[in-house]
Amino acid sequence: MSLSQSISISDSHPADPLRQFTKRVGVATLVLLGLWSLALWLTPYEPAAADFLNRLAPPSAAHWAGTDHLGRDIATRLLYGAGWSLGLSLAISLTGFVVGTVVGILAARSGPAGDFAVMRVTDSFFAFPELIAAVTFAGLFGPSTSNLVIALMVVSWMKFARLARALTLSLGESDYITQARLNGLSSRLILWRHLLPNILPSLLVLWTNSWSRTILSVSGLSFLGFGVQPPSAEWGAMLLDGKAYMQTAPHIMIFPGLAVLLAVMVINLTGDRLRDLMAGKT
Amino acid sequence: MKTLLIRFAGLLAVLFGITLITFTISYFAPGDKAEAIAHARYPGDFGIAPEVLQGIREEFNLDAPFFSQYTHWLADVMRGDFGVSYSSRTSVWVIFVDNLGETVTLTLTSLAIGLAAAFLLSAFAVRYPNTIWDRGAVIISSIGAAMPSYWLALLLILGVSVYLGWLPAYGTGTFAHLILPAATLAFWVMTSQTRLLRTFMLEAYNQPFIETLRLRGIPEREIFSRHVLRHSFVPTLTMIGLDMASLLEGAIIVELTFSRSGLGSLLAGAVLSRDLPVVMFLVMFFATAYVVINSVIDGVQHLCDPRNLKRAKAS
Amino acid sequence: MQQNKPLISVSNLQVSMGGKPLLSNVSFDLSEGEMLCIVGESGAGKSTLVKALQGMMPGHCDRFTYAPSSTEVCGAIPAGLGLAQARWVMQDPLAALNPRQPLGRSIAESLHKENLPKDQLRKRVLSALDDVELTADFYDRLPSQVSLGQAQRACLARALIAQPKLIFFDEPLSALDALVQKKIAQRMESLRRATTTTYIAVTHDLGFAAAYADKVLLLRDGTVSAYQSRTAFFANPQSDYAKDLVAAAQSLGALPEAAA
Asked: How far apart, in whole angstroms, are the C-alpha atoms of residue A217 and residue A138?
């Protein structure tokens, strides 16, 4: 099976690198999700279970990443925290992706006046730096997970709108879309068959970038007290928890930060690879 | 000329949008604004009479519908009257100017150090490709892009302040207080700019005229300092302008992590104490600064484009 | 060449954009099965003419007739997207094919309006691929997985599959190397002989015109410098410009013996 496949690839045509890469990322994601669920199931600890006899214990065989000031197992909390830090930022960046793409395509297709209006609204939102908007909103409306998510969603879509608009405008002039129009395809069909498949890869690169930035924002704002509140096991909130014990038990603040760093790096590198593939590098 | 006019109209529309968004947030912020004002006026007085609150509501037009309140506030803002802080009862403008210095000092110091380091690092990386310099620059810049700055701050505090005891961890004031925050922010500047500078310099190296210079026997060092550096300078400046927002965000996180005074701490404090005039001013300041900086960069690029220059001369 | 029914005729076509004239006083007429070669240097208005005829650029003329849709107008050419029963093969095959859609589906889109059932559509696409000498496994390949010549043949298949009355050919061979050019041109010619399809081909290659055209329309700066049958054009060019061109091509040996 694999032999015949490799032969057919080598002597007729090269495989589509983009599709291959997507497949590989998909498999890797599934494996990671499986490992994560397995770890959640196997860990003997609860994320919120205090154990006062074992406070601030350094890493050991029983507690791989040590325990925090309430004796909670840090490794277990990191596992649960992935749900918060990665999950929330995933939801936020996906919302930005979808909303921004829709706005951008609409702007590009609504004629010069509509385009001008929509893009100036986009620019107005774009002017507010993400972090400042989030601090302001979450601070005024009360620091909480939901307010943090709302604030970050409100400022998550503009980059996607700009990119989707620019791509739609430039592809609208392309020869293959002209051909599709000449062949009488409806604009809806052209959108699904010709436009989206060709603008999605660039938007996906932007999305990986947006996801990793949002992880930094979510954990950063939680660390500053404007987001997910302790005792929830969000990575930034765990750092906030551990800050006071820095002198006696530095391991409390090493591991959550490391988790953020690694997660963001993996996503960034995946996005970089995707961008290189699109540019035709192998 | 016409494109410039359209751009200017767009800029005005965006500035208008910024005021509208800012006001909408403050309008819908929970909490009785009259009470907040009353507490600011009569500190320590916890039983404020309903008549006093009613007076404040009338004075500040708080019962008027959204749009009428907005136009009043907008008129004040256009006159340069940004109001008075609820909590300190001083002019918002004065408070802003008081805190601006610390943030500017922090940002400029970090920018200078970070850029110098980035230039050195990427110059070595490009001059000596496929060596430890090149690999190191790539690795450091991808670590930097993923590094949570608040965590780097904590690590620096842990290492330099707690273990070594060399520098103070928290606070503002002396030069010693500036070192760790500036180092944190400079690291971010260095890594993000190294990534870009390396790309720009490689692009410059790949220009056909570089090969011509080499064939003419011009030494590698001169090619680098005369041509490659100069070639990569303009795109770098543009990128710094565009990344001003990220730099400000970084400064805010650093300020809050190190408990430094400055605009970031001012914003966080004002937000938590619901000092709306201060919050609104700061939010508008950041947004406006961003838009204006970008428009200026845009305009300069537009004017520098030789095609537009020719057109402007012809008409 | 047997004389067939007239297909398209244009007299005194004018196209201008923003007050600047791009084409003026262009006239020609073609019958079924004929090939017209529009030659001229870049910027002479060749592509403008192709677009204007398809209603994709505003053009005016004294009279415009197009038999398949029984169009007969005086004044503006009806604006719209393309002529009925006409197809357009573009210059750059990779730009003309959706990079993320298999060739088979791109070709099938040419029959979009006919609403055929899936299996019938697939059969037609496969036979169109066969017409341009591509095997069935090209159906599922992406443009990035084939050579430039194969991509251009797919574009040709996309035009042929609709069995159009008229095919616009916008420098379809200029992106290809000489061997592939010759192969595709010959294939196209034999297909043309088999049907009554009319071709309007844009080219700056006089050799191509000398080999395949029935009529030659030479454009210069948006006006007609010569409009003659092939034999007349190469034996006795109408204008000085045309004379110079033919002489230059002959001295380079770019023309086949028959035309010289």
From this structure: 13
